[in-house]
């Protein structure tokens, strides 16, 4: 008989209690704003990222590596993805130049898609911040006086308010987003996997626009708990390549 899964343990724990456990999570920014954090749907994030990839492919953007044909010992041909080591064709400068141009377009498309994913991921996570626009328009008049353009769309206006007023420090925003990811997974996902996902999440946002300037090793107080985040710069890696067709004789 196999051991209990994490979900089975959670179900058993909840059913063993007379009343449901209700936990609230708060985060205090360096500017003094105390925010209530809510969990987000991780499925929504995954669905959004899949949708972005689908949209890019429909638009003809080369997010998949360019391909090339190679011969096999049996005389068949096999289609494989290019990587940075396969672009140069000995004795064929024209094909080499073409390969390099396609590769540059591929990398540019990947970067554009990465930025779009980071942007949408951030929007979804920021929905977890229990923040509403102030009833008065003092903050708007203050920014307009400073020639800051404020969006007309209510959703964009809220995002603008969060980014420019609530999270004046990018470091605060990173820590708060990590806290949201954690409370969205705790109790169901094992702690070791949560940490691995946090590392992956940090890598994705640190490669996004504006994150290169965030300092490492943050110690930010969130309620009564301290959250420590280490932003690591990561070398961009090309996605793993797999064969499109297998050799047939």
Tell me the overall shape: extended
Gyration radius, in Å:
24 Å
Query: What structural class is derived from the secondary structure elements?
Result: mainly alpha
Proportion of strand residues: 5-15%
Secondary-structure element sequence? HEEHEEHHHHHEE
Number of strands: 6
Biggest beta-sheet profile: 2 strands, antiparallel
| Uncertain residue ranges | 207-249
Strand order of the largest sheet: 1-2
Fraction in helix = 40-55%
The N- to C-terminal Cα distance equals 46 Å
**Average pLDDT metric:** 74
**Total of helices:** 7
Can you give me a brief rundown of this structure?
Helices cover 46% and strands 11% of the residues.
Descriptive terms for the model:
249 residues, mainly alpha, two-stranded antiparallel sheet, 6 strands, disordered C terminus
What does this structure look like?
- The chain has 249 residues and is mainly alpha-helical.
- The chain has a domain at 6-61 and 114-229.
- It contains 7 helices and 6 strands.
- It has helices at 6-15, 42-58, 93-126, 138-145, 154-166, 170-185, 191-206, and strands at residues 25-28, 34-37, 67-71, 77-81, 218-222, 225-229.
- The strands form 3 sheets. Strands 1-2 form a two-stranded antiparallel ribbon. A two-stranded antiparallel sheet has the order 3-4.
- A hairpin with a 2-residue loop joins strand 5 and strand 6 (225-229).
- The longest helix has 34 residues, at 93-126.
- The chain is extended.
- It starts with 5 loop residues before the first helix and ends in a 20-residue tail after the last strand.
- Residues 207-249 have low confidence and may be disordered.
